[in-house]
């Protein structure tokens, strides 16, 4: 979704705006914008530029991230078929062939642990987003001047050797207790933390669960003929976000 696409989307919503029926964020923004313009409010954040950037940011932050995590998920399932077996076994046993809903998550601890471990190992936003100190701070003995750019390295937490039993290995047991119940770990921080934590965290978690279960229920993922599981390479393609390097996988329909 480019800025041009977002402008076209907003233009269409503007032309069909009915202030008594709010269809979503853009409508709410436009209604407030009109109100402030009518009252001659100056320096309002409800202006055209902010609207376009807000919507562009939501698309940019919200689509590529979940899609990349799912791509990592399928690659890891093809590479570790015994994990894929256990996810599919748990889903068949607990929900059968019906489609999973968000409420099923608590009854699928292994699947939940696998999704968390995919996010931990995939580490798709390794440096979060740059932040700037709004005042002088002393943090763990280090003086950081007001206005300094700070990059929170999420990798250092997601791969922390003092937090994870096998930080560099795909191991869903990181999120399972001895009885096989799911448990949360403080060092699970793919969405960052604090005031500027990912705004879409709960939406992303819901999407990942629904898409992952749907895809695993219907298909079995394998390397293409002639390629072994060991040959599937987990080295990421480097960028601001980390995505899997291009691979071909087979998706075989399950009965
Ligand atoms: C697997 C999926 C996702 C991951 C791993 C992820 C991760 C992150 C991270 C690490 C940040 C930076 C937080 C910081 O500045 O410290 C962030 C920010 C943000 N994310 Fe996500 N995100 C995901 C999905 C989404 C979705 C679905 C949306 C919404 C549609 C979204 C919207 C945002 C927004 C608006 C911010 C900026 C928040 C702010 O600066 O206050 N993200 N995300």
UniProtKB/TrEMBL annotation:
<dbReference type="GO" id="GO:0046872">
    <property type="term" value="F:metal ion binding"/>
</dbReference>
<dbReference type="InterPro" id="IPR001128">
    <property type="entry name" value="Cyt_P450"/>
</dbReference>
<keyword id="KW-0479">Metal-binding</keyword>
<dbReference type="GO" id="GO:0005789">
    <property type="term" value="C:endoplasmic reticulum membrane"/>
</dbReference>
<dbReference type="GO" id="GO:0004497">
    <property type="term" value="F:monooxygenase activity"/>
</dbReference>
<dbReference type="InterPro" id="IPR017972">
    <property type="entry name" value="Cyt_P450_CS"/>
</dbReference>
<protein>
    <recommendedName>
        <fullName>Cytochrome P450 2K1-like</fullName>
    </recommendedName>
</protein>
<keyword id="KW-0492">Microsome</keyword>
<dbReference type="Pfam" id="PF00067">
    <property type="entry name" value="p450"/>
</dbReference>
<dbReference type="InterPro" id="IPR050182">
    <property type="entry name" value="Cytochrome_P450_fam2"/>
</dbReference>
<dbReference type="InterPro" id="IPR002401">
    <property type="entry name" value="Cyt_P450_E_grp-I"/>
</dbReference>
<keyword id="KW-0472">Membrane</keyword>
<keyword id="KW-0349">Heme</keyword>
<keyword id="KW-0560">Oxidoreductase</keyword>
<dbReference type="InterPro" id="IPR036396">
    <property type="entry name" value="Cyt_P450_sf"/>
</dbReference>
<keyword id="KW-0256">Endoplasmic reticulum</keyword>
<keyword id="KW-0408">Iron</keyword>
<feature type="binding site" description="axial binding residue">
    <location>
        <position position="198"/>
    </location>
    <ligand>
        <name>heme</name>
    </ligand>
</feature>
<comment type="similarity">
    <text>Belongs to the cytochrome P450 family.</text>
</comment>
<keyword id="KW-0503">Monooxygenase</keyword>
């Amino acid at each position: 979704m480019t800025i041009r696409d977002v402008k076209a989307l907003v233009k269409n919503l503007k032309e069909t705006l009915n202030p008594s029926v709010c269809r979503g964020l853009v409508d709410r923004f436009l209604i407030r914008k009109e109100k402030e313009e009518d009252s001659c409010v100056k320096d309002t954040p409800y202006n055209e530029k902010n609207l376009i950037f807000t919507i562009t940011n939501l698309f940019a932050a919200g689509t590529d991230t979940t899609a990349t995590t799912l791509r990592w998920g399928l690659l890891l399932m093809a590479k570790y078929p015994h994990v894929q077996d256990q996810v599919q076994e748990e889903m068949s046993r607990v929900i059968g062939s019906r489609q999973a809903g968000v409420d099923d998550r608590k009854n699928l601890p292994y699947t939940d642990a696998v999704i968390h471990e995919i996010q931990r190992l995939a580490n798709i936003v390794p440096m979060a987003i740059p932040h700037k100190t709004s005042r002088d701070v002393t943090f763990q003995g280090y003086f950081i001047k007001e206005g300094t750019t700070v990059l929170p390295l999420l990798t250092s937490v997601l791969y922390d050797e003092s937090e994870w039993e096998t930080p560099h290995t795909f191991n869903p047991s990181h999120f399972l207790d001895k009885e096989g119940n799911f448990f949360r770990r403080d060092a699970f921080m793919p969405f960052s933390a604090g005031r500027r934590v990912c705004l879409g965290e709960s939406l992303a978690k819901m999407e990942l669960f629904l898409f992952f279960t749907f895809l695993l229920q219907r298909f079995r993922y394998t390397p293409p003929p002639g390629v072994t599981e060991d040959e599937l390479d987990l080295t990421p393609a480097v960028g601001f976000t980390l995505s899997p390097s291009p691979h071909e996988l087979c998706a075989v329909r399950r009965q």
